[in-house]
Structure prediction request, 73 residues.
Amino acid sequence: MLSEFKKFIMRGNVLDLAIGVIIGAAFGKIVSSLVNDVLMPLISLAMERVYFSGLFISLNGKDYANLAARKGR
Prediction:
């Protein structure tokens, strides 16, 4: 059973998939960091210090002063 499992793992498809998952996870963290730490501050600075973390859209049609008021805090 162990030798069959070893043969299955050593096939190209499984190894390629494992490498792809690892590279994809690392690439996702790099892109997330780039957007959060580089692009969003630049866009915020260009739009006269608009902070996107405080922006939201109320889908029920009511107006709220901020997100905390919407959540009832």
